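Narrative progress, year one. The postdoctoral researcher (J.K.) led the effort to move from monomer predictions toward full complexes, under supervision of the PI. The following entry was the first complex the group processed end to end, covering 792 residues in total.
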Amino acid sequence: MKTITVNGNEINWEKDINIDDLLKKMNYTFKMIVVKIDGNLIKKNEYKSTIVYAGADVKVIHLVSGG
Amino acid sequence: MNIYKNKYNVDQIKENHKIIAEFKYDIKKLSLGYSNKTLHINLGKSKISSKEVSQEMKDKFTGGRGFNLKLLWDAVNENTKWDSPENEIVIAAGPMSGITQYPGTGKSIVCGISPLTQAPVDSNVGGYFGPYLKFSGWDAIELQGISKKDVIVYINGDEGLIQIIEAPKEDVNSHLISEQMCDIFAENEMDMKSIATVSAGQGAENSFFGCLNFSFYDRRRKVARLKQAGRGGLGTLFRHKKVKAVVCKFSSLNFNNNEVDNLEMIKEVGKNYHRELYEEDDKQCDMRHVGTAHLVEIMDDYDLLPTHNYKFGSDSKTPKISSPIWREMFTQGIPDGCWYGCSMQCAKCVDGYVLRTGPYKGDTVSVDGPEYETAAAFGANMGIFDPHFIVEANFYCDTYAIDTISFGTTMAFIMECYENNIINKEITGGYDLSFGNGEEALNMLHLMASGVGFGKTIGLGIRRLKKLFVDKYNADANFLNDIGMECKGMEYSEYMTKESLAMQGGYGLALKGAQHDEAWLIFMDMVNNQIPTFEDKAEALHYFPMFRTWFGLQGLCKLPWNDVEPADNAETEEPAKVPSHVQNYVDIFNSITGRKIDKNEMILQSERVYNFQRVFNLRMGFGTRTSDKIPYRSAGPVTNEEYLSREDRYDKQLQEKWNWNPKGKSVDERKNKLRQFREDAYQQLCDAVYKRRGWDNNGVPTINKMKELKMDLPGVIEVLKKYGQ
Ligand code: SF4
């Protein structure tokens, strides 16, 4: 089974999954986020077109709001 | 405009005024953000006097919360209790307060020895009072002593006049008295915006978590709006002193009352920020349309919304109280800033609301809020997913001056006690206080405000209730300590922290008690996994509390810092700190004061006051590791029901994080093992944070640390020596 890492947690990789779908899968609904794949910043308008490859290290940084 | 069935009679109120003390002063221009004087009112002796602000006071304490704590320290002694006459309410604005070119600059900060915690508490609040007080010539006001009769303190910043006025006929409840003060002290309708009132209603008289209402007159709605200094029972202290209102009149607001060093620079920084806000807010938090209530569904999505007394972090009924509902209920299209120039406009309002219960049933009113905390406390934590209940209870809490957070969290605790048969109908006076029972919750609120029945008992707050239930009804003390969500005597605000050790520390290690305004680290910790080690968490629990303390020193609102962010913030090295906004603050501070601080000096200013406050806690007999203990529910599942609701998560953690195999073990065994690991982790976190902050292993600041900060004042050293330093 191939995997990816999202914020340090290993999850199963799905073929052709893009960033937009990954955020939905993780239930990451907060809007103030920064997405990086292997350290490279993915802009918001690239979420749909960016396919997450097996073994990718994805960081979805939620910027501190709240409080 | 509010519409009342029984309108008060202004003439009759005025006729009964009697001036009992008067003080005249010369009105001087401010200098670089300071008025350089503070005002002292002794209510017991009816004396009014002024004090100079020294350069040393500014160097060590900066302003705002710093000034308050210094003045409070000088006023009290180690035996002072919250109801001792020498205890004070101190209100200050801070050198940056009152700037109209940048958002979020109208905050006041209030301090006193808290009825809830018996230690110093600080609470910040919007409305016009703080800036008006400063522009009237006073960097801070101290209210000391206890008046024999109900009084108003009137500060006329236009004429340089202060009066203590006997005030027998004013209403106590804040929506009325705030309006009455406008009617009495404003020249005409146009002048009502010049009146800012601090008040506390009847709920503050009859509970330990009374809040203070700070007003500002909303010309479009023609109502006196109310913002709350909510935490720590300062309203209770206010009414204990028999103050009905502190009123400040100031009508000469202009673009530079602070007499700053470099106005052009402030304008430039402000202009850029306003542009950024207009471009980004709709895409980010949507503060201008729903205020902080945008967080309800977000917290639910991340399992962080406390439901049923913090047992769980989400609920299928949350959509009933989430932001689309509030967007509909809030009046849109009217400027909603709680101080001039705040383009964030998050002080939302439900207008034309007809009250369904209580003494004002049938009146039509504007209701401030609900903000996130109130919606979460009343809706999710008490399990009453009904927006109308939330608005009704919000209105009454505000006008009665009952802190919505403490009320909601205490009611949630009561409801769990009721469902566990720790209390029953015999004890509650026949009321069914199960989760979800909005009607009875409102009954409790009205009873609390009137000081009768079980409602009054609830107003004791969780810490005192736990003792009462153990002493009187033989409740299991361990269970109550586990589920009673308070720390240092202050009820928790509305975030679930079970999965974020750093945020457990954010609450437990906060100086004043369980409020999230020092640090909000849940996303960094639990979701982003950015601060995995104890040292990482300790660094965050050093930087963010110090950074956020700075808002209180200056008279700033926290929200414009990070509830909207520049489009390119993501590309910066430390996006969580919002570096460009930090630089804005540094630039504005320097432009006001003519000083040349950088972002490191900013943290140093906070560290001085923060450590002083920790020592102040120690002086009052609190503030060691024992005081930082948290209820277990904030760290993990107390009951089997909670464990089973997130069984996979907990089992996985036992195996992967602690290498303990949960297979074949009973729920009790797994729950107890998890508890052992998590409680141990919290203590290790305390070790790391104390070390990072320069404190000893018992959480006591070292003398060296105080020397390094140049805060080795004789009184401070004396206290530290008693704690083995
Ligand atoms: S951001 Fe909201 S709470 Fe803060 S000053 Fe502006 S309107 Fe008031």
